[in-house]
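Milestone M4 deliverable, item 7.
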Amino acid sequence: MADIILNVDVREQVGTGNARAVRRADMVPGIIYGGGEDPVSISLKKNEVLKAINTGQFIAKMVKLSHKGKEQFAITHDIQFHPVKDTPQHVDFYRVKEDTVITVEVKTHFIGEEECPGLKQGGTLNVVRYTIEVNCPAGSIPESIEVDLSELEMGDSIHISALKLPEGVTSAITDRDPTVLTVVATRGETEEEEGEGEETAEGEETAEAGETEGEA
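Output delivered:
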């Protein structure tokens, strides 16, 4: 279900001049499209848009748009911000139903770091993907995808195929199996291991040289 409800007005006029007039009225221009219907230009109250953005649940999430008693589910597809003031300048919405399957990016959430053997040995996480592109119903977009690190050894990797995705959620990438993260050795540890290897080799060479001199 949509937790965010926004009241919208339909704009009869469009264009740059109208958009500027809307912003001067402390509103945010926008558009709603998709769903087999014609695009509709709308305006939203700026304070409501800012409040929605601050929830952290506005981008790529399902919202409910309300206009004169009629409601429409939509996904926030894009927000344009002012380059200096960082205020919302325009919002794009895509019409959906709760069971409409959409493709969205969902952030990864790492668990089991304290139990991870590789990290206990001094390794570090090399994170390749902080988000995962998935297909899921618009009304059931997961908050995050859990990535369990508790059994990873040094040098181990986790690929998307190894993730436990929520019911009804599938990876949008099907032609390959991308790496999500790898536990790698730190530079200091690598140099230390190389140094130990060199010392061992030098010790063996010295011993061999001593044996050779003794035989002579």
